[in-house]
Amino acid sequence: MARKLFYENAYDATCTAKVVAVDGNAVILDQTVFYGESGGQPGDTGTLNGVKVISTKAREDGEVLHLVEDPSKFAVGSEVSGSLDWERRLRLMRTHTSLHLVAQVAETIAGKCQCTGSGMKDSGEGHVDLMAAEKRIAGELVPLLEAKCNEVIRKGAEVKAFFDEQRKDYRFIQIDSLPPIPCGGTHVRNVSEIGAIKLKRENVGKGKDRVIVTLSS
Fold it and tell me: pTM value?
């Protein structure tokens, strides 16, 4: 299994690694800064030895597949230099963190919510689906939720990531003193890095509210 350098430091944008396998146009490395698409977060793009990495996928066993434009440039055992499309990665990190923040702040105004899904786009837009036990995220609660989230962002709060001591493969993030959330994605170190966000609401089913989150800065 590749060493996942993005768990050690999500701000590392480059790495050197050795090729351990080439399968079709998928290159597997012994370590990587590339996050493989999973959990609603798109996979990273960039280059390996100057060859374009079109996308990255997380295999069921957790291995990261680097889907490259020209696999003929790679051989097992060779050393490669990887470089992320950093602006894109940072935008995804900001968006991902904002989705967790929205879900947790929603509980302070609508009661205990269950997050039933989320997703992100390259553009800096994402969504979180919430089932509210007490109040629907609708009407005047949407601008209230937006205002409260932006207040937390302006004040700043640390975002910590850690693995469960008993189950080493079970990872959590925690925003300030809010309850930890299980998540295997990448996030910014402080919510202040998100910048201001805009919210709007969609109704996607009985009892479910989809909150669309857009980075506005």
Answer: 0.93
